[in-house]
Amino acid sequence: MSIRAKLAWTFMLLLIFGITAISSYSILFIRNYLLNEGEKQILDDSAWLSITLRNLQPDEQFETNLNELALASGYRIAVYDRQGYLFAEAPYHTDPEAPGLLDPDLAGRLSGSSLMIYKNQEDNGQLVTFTEIETDNNPAAFLRVSIYKDQIYEPIKTIRWIIYTGMFISMGLVILVSILFSRSISRPILQLEDAARKIADGNTGQTLNLDRKDEFGKLAASLNRMAEKLRSDNLELKRLNQKQRQFFADITHEIRNPLHTIAGSLEMLQAPNLKPAQRKKTLHTAQQQALRINRLFKDLVTLQRYDSDDQFIHQQPFQMEEVISLILEIYEAEAEEKGIELSARCVPVMVIGDKDKIEQVLENLVSNAIKFTGSGKITIQTAVQDGVLLTEVRDTGIGISAEHLDRLFDRFYRTDKARSRDKGGTGLGLAVVKSILDAHQSEIRVESTPDRGSVFRFILPLA
Ligand code: ATP
Ligand code: MG
């Protein structure tokens, strides 16, 4: 059964039950009231009839008068003589319940007393009174006054009709109102159910607008948030999936190329008439490619560890100046060979970080600067700013155009694949730099102008 039908049925049953209970109670209450009033009335009227009968003459008018009394009072009247025999009845012989002979015991109790005996007779449905008539005017000795209770309940017929009509009208209204009410209550539930089903089917693009401030409104807002979250999670998953596929394709590509070169070199080395100089060059090429594959795997393992292990770095205070001097020593010869002026300007302060990993960062940045600078200057510089040490590596090389800046730190990303590969690069250097700085809760920023040079900056907290 739908929630709408359940609600409607619940309202209808409750209200119909309520209406029926109230109507039945009212009818019972009115019956009781009428009976009580009838009892009081018959007692009063009987006393009055007995007095009136006392003065009635026993002539030929007696029965007519008696009849008129009965009609005027609305009661059935039976008159008995001293021996208890019925001798007159009004309205004329209409009460089959009036006994022909009065119960001697009853007659005995009434004789000589001003007692009025009242009976509510369940067997024949009558209210009855018996009294003695003390008179010498006529032979009437005892009076029996009776009325059928149905007569007393007569007004209930009209009242009951009014109540039942009212009841049916209210039930009709109740049914109508319950249907409308259950509809208005179940509408938002159905809307929510519809929205939830759509979300479950993967349709997260819709927003549910109930425009309500109650629980349904809150539920709709939660559903909207859920859809929004799912939407962004889905996008993120798609992005990650795409990235992973790209990553896999890149690795395959990066390994296939050097392997191809190595295979070619090996083939060449088998040639019988290879000159020693050529043999040396071929061997060198093969060796370089093997080293490149080795380096590629080393970088991949490093990145993998940063991805999965938060504890990979060990931070402690160290002198940045020391690291920079070491880098200068490593790259001095290479820079000189290319005619590049490599220099540093450093502030002697202690910073907090993993010294070896920061050295790796600087190595990657300076090796890139040398790789992508034909001739000119490379400067490593540090400066203290708001409790942190800013380190930058600046070159006057080929620069990077704006469209590459977004993806520069992605794994295997190179602005010019062919040129970079020629220079022995795999496109993992900056990804490693980013991972290391991420682990330090820092980030790497780049500014670059094509043909003029680039600046790479990062910060570390002062010790
Ligand atoms: P690897 O570092 O793995 O040997 P790579 O140097 O090519 O290879 P990254 O260090 O990640 O890779 O650099 C990515 C790309 O960014 C480079 O291929 C190059 O195109 C560009 N790039 C990086 N540094 C500079 C720079 N200083 N000047 C100009 N281009 C740069
Ligand atoms: Mg590099």
How would you describe this structure to a colleague?
The chain has 463 residues and is of the alpha+beta class. The chain has three domains: 3-156, Beta-Lactamase (2-Layer Sandwich); 207-309, Helix Hairpins; 313-461, Histidine kinase-like ATPase, C-terminal domain (Heat Shock Protein 90), CATH 3.30.565.10. The protein has twelve helices and twelve strands. It has helices at 3-54, 62-73, 104-110, 149-152, 154-200, 215-269, 276-308, 320-337, 355-371, 402-405, 417-422, 429-439; strands spanning 76-80, 86-90, 116-121, 126-132, 142-148, 316-319, 340-345, 350-353, 376-385, 388-395, 445-449, 453-461. The model has no long low-confidence stretch (mean pLDDT 88). Bound molecules: adenosine-5'-triphosphate (ATP) and magnesium ion (MG). Residues 364, 367-368, 425, 429 line the site of magnesium ion (MG). Magnesium ion is lined by residues 364, 367-368, 425, 429.
Features:
463 residues; alpha+beta; Beta-Lactamase; Helix Hairpins; Heat Shock Protein 90; 3 domains; five-stranded antiparallel β-sheet; 12 helices; 12 strands; 57% helix; rod-shaped; binds adenosine-5'-triphosphate; binds magnesium ion
Q: Overall mean pLDDT score? A: 88
Q: Enumerate the spans where pLDDT stays under 50 for 5 or more consecutive residues.
A: none
Overall geometry comes to: rod-shaped
Bound molecules: adenosine-5'-triphosphate, magnesium ion
* SSE series: HHEEHEEEHHHHEHEEHEEHHHEE
The helix count comes to 12
Structural class: alpha+beta
* Distance N to C terminus: 70 Å
Write down the Rg. 57 Å
- Full CATH superfamily name of the largest domain: PAS domain
CATH architecture of the largest domain, please? 2-Layer Sandwich
Structure summary, number of beta strands: 12
What's the CATH topology label of the largest domain? Beta-Lactamase
Strand order of the largest sheet: 2-1-5-4-3
| Beta-strand content bin | 15-25%
